[in-house]
Give the backbone structure.
Amino acid sequence: MLGWEFPPYFAGGVGTVCYSLTKALAQRDVEVTYIMPSGPRNVSADFVNLMVADNLIADGRIKLAKIASLLGAYEGMPEYQAWYEKVLRETGGKAGKLYGHNLLTEIERFAEKVAMIVQELGIEFDVIHAHDWTTFPAAMKLKELTGKPMVVHVHITEFDKTGGNHADPRVYAIERKGMLFADRVLTVSNLIKNRCVHQYFIDPNKISVVYNAVEFNQRPALPETFQIKAQDKVVLFLGRVTLQKGPDYFLEAARKVLEVDPNVKFIMAGSGDMLPRMIERAAEMGIGKKVIFPGFVAREEGDKLYRMADLFVMPSVSEPFGLVPLEAMYQGTPVIISKQSGISEVLNNALKVDFWDVEDIANKILAALHYGTMHQQLRHEGNIEVQSFNWDSVAQEVQQIYHEVSGAW
């Protein structure tokens, strides 16, 4: 299995999925060797043979120069270039001797390292499973080298990162080539399957939809009280503050809600390229005192925010799946989700909206906050429904696909 991140060295949902999936596969007696490009020396997991390419140096069988990667898990070309130029300035140009000048070079370097590691260490395996486009070149190189079947896992496409508007042609080319080269393409929703079919021209017969699940932290033993709720209801947005997640629509709906009920506080938790603009926009709309921006929050802090909130809203423009509504529902918080999300395909006990319809979003926020029976039903039934999203079922589907592509029946 190839991935760019693995907890505790991860930036978002893909890392969490890789962790939970490998853990569930291990419980089904599937042996997984997971290779990632870089990470701290102490990254490990009891249930997976975790290998960090940069750390496999001078062990007598394989020699690699340790070259730190500049690539972050959710960066595109512009972000990478800005980061690279910053490193050049800080190192007086010395970094140019070590690093490739763009993200594509980092990806190709990882592909070469993976091929070398597998050859030199003699790693035996039956199936290649690659997560996200950054690992597709490495998977293709391994397939050419070994002839083993290749599965690619599409968690998000380049189109989804831009709200479906456009795709960097270089990234698009790698995504499409990887899907064409693969024996099976896994997508996290029908929304992503349809994008692969209609925008990447992939045969629908080679695509399998495998929905994600979620691992839940335990609830606190005692009920909590939050000072903020003494006077106000709380509505929460939690996620990357980027175009894809629809934070601007959240603020527009917040303004409409506050025109009707001023006793509501809105929390926009997360970091991202749109955060400074969202802070400015809240001030421009005159609701700055009603919107709290705590920035990036860790998993435990996120769970506390869910418990604090009376309602969670995910107005994503294009959401391949969407784990956060499930986390909110587990903590007993009703949710509003956009119809442009994969999770809306399978979630029943949630209010659903079009991301662009801020009038409808505002009306549903007010209804969920003010109608006690509706709020309680969403809370109770949602909490029951979310228990059905378990990783063992996901692992069973993935294991069956492994058998199918490898002819192991």
